[in-house]
Inverse folding.
């Protein structure tokens, strides 16, 4: 786990319950979530951030909730198992010419993936519109998901002033400092912190947040 430098009082830190369940092991390395660079094909590596993050959400659900274990074969929680899940997910959360550029494309595909495994999934979504920096609404949505032990997929269509985040890109959000809106994300298998408040103020195109859960 990274040192969460932007995090303040303990009561303002909100996280999924077991971040280590996002881990993926490989010889000599431990990743947090997957990386689209693991795909074999050039197009998959270029456009595969959406299915990679969807795989991370499903991976966590399957590891943290016994009733959702049929979502995927965790096995030894190794890189080969996660890559197999990424390959499967690509068939459902499938990038088009502009990638997976909407919350609906992401969530519809993830629900189809769950249905194919007889595990109905529902999606919580939050659209972040351009020049509409509703920080309170983003905070409330994200905190609600994390407190229900649901990691969040974050679609960033324009990185604004953030230099440590690619544009037109999905990452997995696992924790939030509610006063500063500093978020812990998993991006390309690594954990890092980003300033969500700065992103909201400077993004040119907005984005979305998506969480998956059992459809009961």
């Amino acid at each position: 786990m990274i040192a969460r430098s932007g995090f303040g009082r303990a009561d303002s830190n909100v996280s999924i319950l077991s971040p280590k369940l996002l881990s993926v092991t490989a010889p000599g390395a431990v990743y947090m979530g997957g990386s689209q660079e693991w795909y074999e094909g050039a197009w998959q590596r270029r456009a595969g951030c959406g299915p990679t993050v969807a795989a991370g959400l499903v991976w966590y659900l399957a590891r943290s909730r016994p009733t959702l274990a049929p979502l995927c074969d965790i096995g030894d929680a190794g890189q080969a198992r996660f890559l197999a899940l990424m390959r499967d997910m690509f068939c459902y959360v499938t990038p088009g010419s502009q990638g997976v550029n909407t919350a609906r494309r992401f969530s519809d595909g993830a629900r189809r993936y769950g249905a194919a495994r007889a595990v109905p999934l529902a999606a919580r979504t939050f659209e972040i519109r351009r020049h509409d920096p509703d920080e309170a609404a983003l905070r409330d949505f994200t905190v609600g998901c994390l407190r229900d032990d649901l990691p969040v997929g974050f679609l960033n269509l324009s990185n604004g002033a953030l230099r440590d985040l690619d544009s037109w890109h999905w990452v997995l959000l696992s924790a939030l400092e509610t006063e500063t809106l500093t978020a812990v994300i998993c991006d390309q298998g690594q954990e890092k912190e980003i300033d969500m408040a700065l992103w909201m103020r400077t993004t040119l195109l907005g984005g979305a947040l998506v969480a998956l859960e059992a459809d009961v």
Observations:
- The mean pLDDT is 94.
- The radius of gyration is 16 Å.
- The chain has one domain: 19-214.
- The helical segments are 42-47, 49-64, 79-90, 103-116, 135-147, 196-202.
